[in-house]
Amino acid sequence: MAPDVRSDLDAIPAYVPGASAPGAVKLASNETTAGPLPSVAAAITDAASAANRYPDITSRTLVERLADFLGVGAENVTAGCGSVALCQQLVQAVCAPGDEVIFGWRSFEAYPIIARIAHAVPVSIPNRADGSLDLDAVAEAVTDRTRLIFVCTPNNPTGPAVDRTELVAFLDRIPERVTVALDEAYYEYVRSDDPVDGVAEAMARPNVVSLRTFSKAYGLAGLRVGYLVGPVDLVVPVAKMVVPFSVSSLAQSAAIACLEAGDELRARTDAVVAERSRVRDALLDMGHAVPDTQANFVWLPLAGAASDFDAHCRDHRVVTRCFAGDGVRVTIGDPDENDRFLAAAREFVTGM
Ligand SMILES: *Cc1c(COP(=O)(O)O)cnc(C)c1O
């Protein structure tokens, strides 16, 4: 007889990672194309020589540097094994079994998975036709069982960001007993007239946290380190849910080195932003209804043609991220990579 395991495992979807193929251009996981800066690579090498020792369990130095960098107290920050781990810790910290976690859909595919892992109930609210979050509908979906709302801005995989005016109106409608998590994994790529600063919102309200990561703009996806900023009454419970020592010493050292590199890494996002306009404009010219994007990717709402488009790109040695029946997300790479993708996309259109 097999051992008893949870009876609800079939209801927990598997996380599908972006694919890669040898020799192909990988535009499937919203990574940066360039490797770590030399100073960051050196910090990783130094940390490797002390890998026989356990890491600092609270990532104290990193948390202090982040607090300085963000202008908040160290007690308002906690580090995690990627911000996805902090999403999971947050659900575990605020939800009892059967409590509801609301998010727009389509959005970050980890939300329904981590809600179920924590025995909570995922509630997904359809996005607007332009791929933006429908915050009115999200607010209306709050019930007595709601404990947590994820607001992914910019939204992965569709691209639009929430405006600050819209966010403030939304937050004003949410009861303070409900936690709102602003998932700002792509914060550094936002260039809007009315941008959200999740850290400022989190410091101004008792029920708001901001989640950010070193995986995207800072280029450390392989090392796994992110952080959560918010009121102490939420930071302490979230920190309590951490898997001990899950932020490795290499990750802590590399993240500190990224912060010490000053504006060098953030300046790289300007190139991505310029390329994202170029790629989006080219796709619009081809007739694709690509939503506005404030992140390092574009969304092609291909519906029933998504899988064919994805396979066509793969045949042209470009790996994209397909959500079958819905759309294809394509990361903005360097100009050569983007040209290879656009050439493939052009042939798909003419081949239809
Ligand atoms: C990539 C991503 C994350 C987190 O990534 P980590 O590598 O775990 O830090 C979180 N939220 C969204 C929406 C993302 O796209």
In words, what does this structure look like?
The longest helix is centred in the last third of the chain and has 22 residues, at 264-285. 47% of the residues are buried. The protein is of the alpha/beta class and 352 residues long. The chain folds into two domains: 18-35 and 263-351, Alpha-Beta Complex (Aspartate Aminotransferase, domain 1); 38-260, Type I PLP-dependent aspartate aminotransferase-like (Major domain) (Aspartate Aminotransferase, domain 2, 3-Layer(aba) Sandwich), CATH 3.40.640. The protein has helices spanning 38-48, 60-70, 83-94, 110-117, 135-140, 164-173, 198-204, 232-240, 249-260, 264-285, 306-315, 335-351, and strands at residues 25-26, 77-80, 100-105, 121-126, 146-152, 179-183, 208-213, 226-229, 297-300, 318-319, 321-323, 327-331. The mean pLDDT is 96. Helix 1 packs antiparallel against helix 9 (249-260) and helix 3 (83-94) crosses helix 4. The protein has twelve helices and twelve strands. It has a seven-stranded mixed sheet, with helices on both faces. The N and C termini lie far apart (53 Å). It is 38% helix and 15% strand. Pyridoxal-5'-phosphate (PLP) binds at residues 30, 82-84, 108, 152, 156, 183, 185, 213, 215-216, 221, 226. Belongs to the class-II pyridoxal-phosphate-dependent aminotransferase family. One of its GO terms (molecular function) is histidinol-phosphate transaminase activity.
